[in-house]
């Protein structure tokens, strides 16, 4: 079983969208041995942002409401995937990587921006999730 936790600042936009995109791709690929979650470094129990919900809905991905969850104790058996290098350094753990290492660029925070920005971020997240799945398949061949 592989456990992956996507991490961003507040767990209301990027990380929750990445989580749901990954879950959809796992379901479509019939991969059942990867558990996915998301957390926020400074999460405070807020709902997923309205634009994140709408973006997921437009992608035909679950847009169900949920409260943000604060990142707690680091689990050595979980792979943490952060949106930025700064967030990765804040985790200070060996089992983490950033979207920059997957895509060559960081995922900017769309919070408070318009739908065009959310749509762009969702497409970047989807590309990053695809790259992560490819990397996992390569690791499994080792």
Please, could you describe this protein's structure?
The chain has one domain: Rossmann fold. It has five helices and four strands, in the order E-H-E-H-E-H-E-H-H. The chain has helices at residues 14-28, 50-58, 85-91, 99-103, 115-141, and strands spanning 2-8, 34-40, 78-82, 96-98. Strand 1, helix 1 (14-28) and strand 2 form a beta-alpha-beta unit. Helix 1 (14-28) crosses helix 5 (115-141) and helix 2 crosses helix 5. The longest helix has 27 residues, at 115-141. The chain is globular. The two termini are 16 Å apart. The model has no long low-confidence stretch (mean pLDDT 96).
H/E topology pattern: EHEHEHEHH
Helix content: 40-55%
- Please tally the helical runs, counting DSSP H or I stretches of 4 or more residues: 5
Major beta-sheet overview: 4 strands, parallel
Low-pLDDT regions: none
CATH class: Alpha Beta
Distance between the termini: 16 Å
The CATH topology is given as Rossmann fold
Mean pLDDT reading: 96
CATH homologous superfamily caption: Response regulator
How many individual β-strands?
A: 4
Task: Work out the radius of gyration.
Answer: 14 Å
């Amino acid at each position: 079983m592989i456990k992956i936790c996507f991490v961003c600042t507040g767990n209301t936009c990027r990380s929750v969208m990445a989580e749901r995109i990954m879950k959809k791709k796992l379901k479509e690929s019939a991969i059942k041995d990867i558990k996915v979650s998301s957390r926020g470094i400074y999460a405070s129990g807020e709902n997923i942002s309205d634009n994140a919900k709408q973006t997921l809905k437009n992608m035909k991905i679950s847009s169900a409401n949920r409260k943000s969850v604060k990142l707690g104790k680091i689990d050595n058996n979980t792979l943490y995937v952060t949106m930025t290098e700064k967030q990765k350094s804040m985790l200070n753990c060996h089992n983490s990587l950033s979207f920059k290492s997957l895509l060559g660029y960081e995922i900017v925070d769309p919070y408070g921006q318009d739908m065009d920005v959310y749509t762009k971020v969702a497409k970047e997240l989807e590309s990053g999730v695809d790259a992560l799945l490819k990397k996992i398949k390569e690791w499994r061949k080792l």
